[in-house]
Amino acid sequence: MGNFGAAMYRFTSAGLLIIGLILPAPVRAAEVSGRITDSDTGEGIPRAVVRALAQDQGQPSAQALTDRRGRYLLDLLRGRYRIQVEVPDSNYLPRQYGGSGDAEAGGFLHIPTFDSFIVLDLSLTMGGSIAGRVRDEGEVPLAKATIRAESAVHRVSTATGEDGSYLLSELPPGEFLISAGTRDQRYVSAYYPESSHREDARPVAVEQRRKLTGIDFVLQRAGAIRGRIRALKGMEPLEGVRVFAEKQGDSPISRVATSDSQGRYRLAGLSPGSYLLSAGPPEGDERPGRQQPGWLRQFYPQQFHRESAVALDLESGLTLSGIDFTLLQECWISGRVVTLGDEEPLEEVQVIPQPVMLPDFSPARTRTDGSGDFLLQGLPPGNYTLGMLLPARHRRLIRVYYRDKLSLDRADRIELEEGKALRDIDFNLAAGASLSGRVGIEEPEAELEYQWDSSRDVVELARLDFDPRGSEDRQLRVEEDGSFRVDGTPGGRYSLTPRLSDPNLIALRSPLPRVVTVVEGDLLQELDFAFRIGGSISGSVESASEAPGLNQLQIVLINFVENTSSVFDLPSPQYTLAGLSPGRYFLALRSKPDTTHPSRGYGVSQVFDSRLVEVVKGAGTSNVDLRVPPTPAGRSPF
After folding, report:
1. Closest Cα to residue 63, out of 55, 71, 52?
2. Burial label, 339 (beta-carbon count in 10 A; 0-12, 13-18, 19+)
3. Which of 375, 572, 399, 554 is nearest to 490 (CA)?
4. Distance between CA atoms of 243 and 261, rounded to whole angstroms?
5. Which residues pair with 157 in a beta bridge?
6. Distance (Å, rounded) from C-alpha 608 to C-alpha 594?
7. In contact, 323 and 360? CB cutoff 8 Å
């Protein structure tokens, strides 16, 4: 043992070697000694700093430096210590030791008596390092730029020297994102390599005992935007308002600044590009449950929705000044939704505000709670209509606008003043009627195979009698099995007309549409429509510029089998004659008798073109094109 003299050895439960010494005189301090070694090679590490940090109040800490063989010696008083080891100017990873022997456990080393001797050997792992330079676009070195390295478990930062160089040492092996920026925000922060977006950064792999060089940055001069935030009423400055700058492009970036006591704000460190600016309420003022209306979020210049905002173009190194906001206080609407008569509260009903003068602006909607209550916040001053959407479990109720109106055109307007709360805007919903039915094919073999197009096939429900509340026509979707249904129908007289995408269907049981009288609360079922499969004819009509136009032409269809004829006007150059029975037809394009010779007392028309057409069941006969030939010069078209 050399100078340590005779000794007795024993092991503690913590696995430490405790040596009892036979000394000629009392020991005033305990000795902790050991060796700091390389975890891979086992060799001693010289000039490692070993610190014993006292954890008890009034007790001194101690520090020692390892010799060339990695040995150290600490004299410690009785108490608790945390042991830390690091090697300056190296890539060895610092290590912390506690009583548990696990650096992550956070325990302490306990010194029980003054006459103990503890041997504590620790090994250090070698990490890696990253080095590079930071310059501006003119190749001028940037001193005091901040460099950050970040992995999933480790973060570290440093600053560049006068020559723009930096060194990040003692990095554990792994992948790191490296970024550079300046504290004064005169330059745009960047990730390696050459990206202002974290999502586009490329990780740098750090390996043991390796110094990675050439991780350089060229920082671009940043732009800035500044202005003032004031209240519209009195133009008083507003403090604590957040201003958001959203850069437009494939990878949008957002920056936030907060106004000071004078209402001033400054957004710095912005890269060149186009920005949308908005000013919103102070942080925490957007939380639900606040007692008073707050400030409305506003887009520059003085707009309440993003679509009307004007983007600001910012150039490198320049500052846009005078980008001011004058904010308004929001308005509130509160009320209750219940059933008519028994006043049962209705939960999960969506209440939807719509500004009268801002049709493209859609404020946030809300839902009723378990008591049927609702609260609409964030509304700009102005006139509104108020409607709703019902959840599926309440679909038999009549959906209304404010004051029981059934259409947006008839809905009563609600006027909101800045900063005011409008209360007791209540809805009392009555039970409507339910109508259901089916469109089907009355051909057993076709019924099994036919599938309806639920995206295009509908049954049109139209109000026939006058309703002062403004009933609106509705289109009922036909499901793939042919069924349709509508709930919450107000009382009145209605027509139901199928509007089907297949032109080959022939309606049975005329007349169409079907007319029904509805009483609120009724359930009308089996409103069925029957069809069979026929064919159709489609094509185009062409007329020369000097010949009659479409409004002067008709198509005459003659059925040879049934010896019947039908006349069709032409709303467009493309036509379709739908729902035809299979068989042979004569098709003629003629002039309208009542418009071509208005001065004569009898109808005279001219046939311009004709076709013989065979209509096939379940198929459309297409490209049956008709043409009005040019009129010879000097001759009347009729």
Report:
1. 52
2. middle
3. 399
4. 14
5. 148
6. 17
7. no
User: Is the distance from CB of 498 to CB of 409 less than 8 angstroms?
Assistant: no
Who contacts 338 (Cβ-Cβ below 8 Å, separation ≥6)? 344, 345, 346, 372, 426, 427, 428, 429
Q: Check if the beta carbon of residue 352 is closer than 8 Å to that of residue 365.
A: yes
Per residue in 181-195, pLDDT (tens digit) is 999 889 999 999 888
Contact status, residue 353 vs residue 333, Cβ threshold 8 Å: yes
Q: Is 149 exposed, middle or buried (0-12, 13-18, 19+ CB in 10 A)?
A: buried
Report which DSSP code applies to 57.
T
- Please give the helix or strand (H or E) that residue 448 lies within, else none: helix 444-449
Interacting residues of 385 by C-beta distance below 8 A, sequence separation 6+: 353, 354, 356, 401, 402, 408, 411, 412, 413, 414
> How many CA atoms are closer than 13 Å to the CA of 6, on its beta-carbon side?
3
Q: What is the pLDDT of residue 289?
A: 55
pLDDT of residue 605: 80
Structure tokens that stand for 387 in this block: 């409607």
Q: Please give the distance of CA 457 from its chain centroid, rounded to a whole number.
A: 32
Q: What is the pLDDT of residue 114?
A: 65
- Is the model's pTM score more than 0.85? no
The more confident residue out of 15 and 502 is 502
